[in-house]
Amino acid sequence: ESKIDINVENRSLTIYNLSIQDTANYTCKVYIENIQTFERNITHQLIVQDVPSAPSKPIIDEVAATEARARWNGSELSNNSPLTVYILTTRGEREVTVGSDSRELIITDLEPYTCYRIKITAKNIIGRSYFSPPSDDFYTKSTAPQAAPKNFKAFSPNSSEIWLEWDSPSSAGINGQLKGFIILYKTQGFMEESLRLDSPGETQMKLQGLKAYTMYTVSIQVYNEIDAGPTETLVARTAEGIPSAPRITHLTGRMSDSFHVHWEPPQETNGVVIKYELQWRHNSTLRTRIIQGHLANPMIAYVTNLKPYTEYKLRVAAFTGGGKGPFSEEHPALTDLRGPSEPIFKNLTVIAPDLLYISWNKPNLYYKNIDNYLLRWTEIDAKGKAQDKLLNGSVQEFKLRLPPNKMYKIKMAGISKAIFSNSHFVGKFTEYKEFVMGGKDDPNAEFVNTGDSSGIIAGVVTAIIVILVLVLIIVSYRSFQCRKCYQAAYYYLAVPSNSSSAPTTVITVAEPSGWYNEKEYPDIAVDNFISHVESLHADSDFGFAQEFDDVNRNTKTDFKSDSSAQPENKGKNRYINIAAFDHSRVVLKTELGRIRQSDYINANYIDGYKKPRAYIATQGPLPQSFGDFWRMIWEQNTSVIVMITNLMERGRRKCDQYWPSDGLELYGNMSVKILNTVPRAHYTIRIFSLRNMKVKKKHSVKGVGERLVYQYHYTEWPDHGVPDYTLPPLTFIQKSAEANREGGGPIVVHCSAGIGRTGTYILIDSMIAQIKDKGIINIPSFLLHIRKQRNFLVQTEDQYMFIHDVIVEYLLGGGELTEIQENNLNNYISKLDQEQELCNGTTTICESQLLKQYKLATSHIASDEDKSQSLKPYNLDKNRNLNLLPVNLKRVTLPARPGIEGSDYINATYLQGYYKSNEFIISQHPMEDTVEDFWRMVWDRSSPVIVVLSQIDEEDLKTFWPEKDNSLEVTNVFKLALRVEDQETQENIKDFILESTQYDYTFMTKLITTQGAIWPDSCQPLHCVFDLIQLAQKYQQFNDIGPVIVIDRDGGVSASKFCALWTLFNQLANDHVIDVYQLAKLYHLKRPGVIGEQDDYLFLYKAIESLSLHYLEEKESVSSSPRHHNSHYGSMRKNGTLPHNNTNSTLNKSETVI
To answer: Segment Disordered: which positions (predicted)?
Structure first.
């Protein structure tokens, strides 16, 4: 086929499909024939160029770990274009270029223990040749690994083990055949130990036989056939174990009914000692006391209510987070003597005008010995001082010489010398005996017979009866008169009915007022309620005092409580004067063969708003009533228990633990299994499976034999008092009330006695229901009504006042929970800045929802009294900014140093988080004079993580930690040393070890600083603000023993943002809701000024919105979203958030903030 095309018209020659063989000279001959013939030749040279031919197959030799030599023969044909370079291609398309004259090359930068195949191509101006045939496959030599295992983690399941997990490094970093792992571990002061794990596929291992509650440095490295690689290191602490036994050293201050016992802490604490159990026993009587709070070393405890001259056996045991340790050896403790009872006069005879004969018998009760007797006499109708005569304790008669012709009275007492001091105990005196000394001329001596004459006895008995009758008449008359003079409340001893209970408690009860016509109180409209409460608060809460006093006077209390008074039921009452009214008490179902009184429990039905028997108010269960309590829960079909007390408060037993700590327990016929425990900042939720063992499982339909019961336990409500702030208990009441399933039985509410805090809860929840229904509030009328169902509901004026304040908080918050659902977050935030018209009389004001929220959250102005500790003269210089000071209620208090004023002060505040009310400490950047105080705070609060948001400038904001190889000793209590420093992307992490100088105790803390990047301003996109938070959370989760400390320059806006976003992150992750308003308001109350400006408040919304949107955009990355760490409770209860009920709400929504 012709490759040439000649076009005469265009006078052109075209050659197609050129190849290298077409290179030649081309001549064009032209003939012109006209008058004469003309010929012309034109010649052009055509050179066709092509890529060169392929080089030969490379030969590989001299192979090492990271290099090899390649040799080859060059291209045979250059194809009319000179070669410029040879290009060698290795694994991963890496190319190496050499000159055209080269025929070998040492290829470097190869990866050890890697298979390679080399190809070569030649290049000229036209391009690259075809590849040469590839070399034979070859492996580079092995060398020591250069990568450490990844994702190295540790946790301690018990006090003697640490469980390690890791991922193997990539094969590229192993540099050979992976043979296994080497684990190195040590604790301070001991040699490093190593373990070799010859299983390359393993990714976890257990270290055993470790010391309890000890910090271990653990490293891991891979090894191959050549050597071991670099280490990945972490620090892990073993879990707390049980401590060894303390040692009782001595007793001091021994009295007849008390002494002080001293003991040393356990030599091996194996954790942090959180409390002691002190027992003292005499014969079969055993008493116990739990000692917790500030635990000194050595310890001292005051034991009282003892019997005189009695030997007790003492022993003490310590508790840590790992449990209760063994008791110490018993230590004998003898109480001192007490004075004897009165001696018994046998005879008083005037045997001479100036001589009195006295004889007596020993007292009926005395201890050890009677060392002396004391005679005391005085002249009747004379103003002279009584005279004493000390007699030897061995005598029982005496002749006393007295001036004649006078009338006297005389008494005597026994005296015993103290065993443990030089004191003497004077016993009880006899009654005075009167007599007359005769004159000189009186021939007859007076005889006073004190013997057991029947006539005298009859006379004495008659006299006693007469006196008792008179006393009863007087007391009855005074009692009648006292009833006419009513007082608002009296304090009675609420005596525990079982002798094993803790010391007595004061319970406030109203004075019975007899029959009356029930007083009516006016309804208060929602719109007027806030101003109504303000008027009651005026003049030091005078209006509240008057109204509560009036409610008490009009309380009807003379209902019968016969069932509570039955002998067989008295032991089921926690307090002897807190009984259950018969007409409203919960009657348990009786079983055949059971005694009649088995239907009794100290509990009463209480009405809710328009819902009879909406609640059951009861006492904190006693051990002997656990079975009855769970029977009641079952029989009443209760699904929610509200507990508003701690088991121990102020050292006294307030309630006994009526649920299993783990697993399953039987209480009578009731099987209770704990399924989950969900901690929150101010309360804890426990989920139980309750089963009636009398209902056969195979015959029961679903829900009949087994039920779920939720216990909402508020942990920060003091006895006889009220919480510090209104928002947390309001949220608790709303969530616990809404958890009650539709058609469920009464909510069971209990505190200790089941009256004060219990009544407060019921009244708040009922008033919220009344607001939703009618838009009115009537607290005193409802209180009078429910007091007819259980005595003394709402005990104190403070509780009564608190009810009003919580309802005000409810109205300000818009009448609903202030949480925002995650699925509504974007829509909600988009409307925050939209302005709304508000009418204020004749003025129309445009105000956005954001501004209203911000103003409400930051409206409180703290008084100087609230910040009095910060403003004391000796503390003023410890504050960087007087606009950012801790309030007294939430300031961090350091252990005071004797003789140094203000040594307990540091500018630092506790802030709540998601799990704990003191989850964070926010503080200013330490000043030169407060560095030691700062580290004292870290030590005293065992803070595991410190986040420094301030930028070190070494002028104003200086480094406040020691550099490596230097240590800082603080107040002769502990030493601080930098152990490890690590560099993350933008953060620097320093590991500090704090070691006691007196005891074998250390703990570690991580200090995180940002490197030149100002958080949160430098975080782009916005969701990146959570990167630093998640880094800190990672470290805190490994060592959650104390609050996280967050620092900025003044302990202000940046630090509070960090704490708030940390908490909001957990809210979003676990509950799919956020509550910016509640968090901001509480932070402002605890540390005024930390919320900053309105834009700072909006930033919290925007940041959490950005995070939520980020996770929505990365749905395919399941592990990136915190949703997949939801608690068990969150998944069971609609992701932890209960539906809001807006039915019949009469609130004006334009006036609410949420």
So the answer is: 1118-1154
CB 502 within 8 A of CB 652: yes
Confirm if 337 and 418 have CB atoms less than 8 A apart.
yes
pLDDT in tens, 588-598: 998 765 555 48
> φ, ψ for residue 329 (rounded to 5)?
-65, 145
Query: How high is the mean pLDDT of the chain?
Result: 85
| Closest listed residue to residue 810, CA positions, set 530, 1057, 536, 605 | 530
CA gap 82, 103 in Å, rounded: 16
Q: Which residue has the higher pLDDT, 765 or 442?
A: 765
DSSP 8-class letter at 1072: S
Q: Nearest-CA neighbor of 943 among 1039, 1055, 1065, 1027?
A: 1039
Question: What is the rounded CA–CA span in Å between residue 431 and residue 653?
Answer: 42
Q: Is the pLDDT of residue 452 over 70?
A: no
What residue type is 456 in one-letter code?
I
Total H helices, total E strands in the chain: 19, 63
Per residue in 536-583, pLDDT tens? 998 888 889 889 999 998 998 789 999 999 999 999 999 988 999 999
Rounded to whole angstroms, how far apart are CA atoms 854 and 1114? Answer: 32
Structure tokens at 754: 């089941």
Model confidence band, residue 1057 (pLDDT cutoffs 50, 70, 90): very high
Give me the CATH topology for the region 344-451: Immunoglobulin-like (2.60.40)
Compute φ and ψ for 279, nearest 5 degrees.
-120, 140
pLDDT at 483 over 70: no
Type of residue numbered 876: L
**Cβ contact 643:282 at 8 Å:** no
Residue positions annotated with a catalytic role: 751
CA distance 1146 to 167: 59
Who contacts 1110 (Cβ-Cβ below 8 Å, separation ≥6)? 1021, 1023
Phi, psi of 447 (to 5 degrees): -115, 125
pLDDT of residue 178: 93
Superfamily per CATH, domain 907-1115:
Protein tyrosine phosphatase superfamily (3.90.190.10)
Task: Say if CB 322 and CB 159 are below 8 A apart.
Answer: yes
At the top level of CATH, which class does the domain 247-334 belong to? mainly beta
Amino acid found at 565:
A
The residues near 242 (Cβ < 8 Å, ≥ 6 apart) are 159, 270, 320, 322, 323, 324, 325, 326
β pairing state of 331-334 and 311-320: antiparallel
Q: What SS3 state is found at 999?
A: coil
Return the CATH fold of 524-812: Protein-Tyrosine Phosphatase; Chain A (3.90.190)
Residue 137 structure tokens: 């496959």
d(CA 348, CA 433): 9
Q: Does the CA dihedral 577-582-583-589 come out positive or negative?
A: positive
Q: Who contacts 799 (Cβ-Cβ below 8 Å, separation ≥6)?
A: 722, 756, 757, 759, 760
The two structure tokens encoding residue 768: 């919220």
User: Is the CB of residue 723 less than 8 Å from the CB of residue 645?
Assistant: no
**Sequential DSSP letters for 128-166:** B-PPPPPPPPEEPPP-------EEEEEEEEETTEEEEEE
150-237, what's its fold? Immunoglobulin-like (2.60.40)
Structural class in CATH, domain 59-139: mainly beta
d(CA 911, CA 920): 5
Residue 242: closest CA among 275, 285, 206, 218: 275
Cα 175 from Cα 227, distance rounded (Å): 10
| DSSP tag of 17 | S
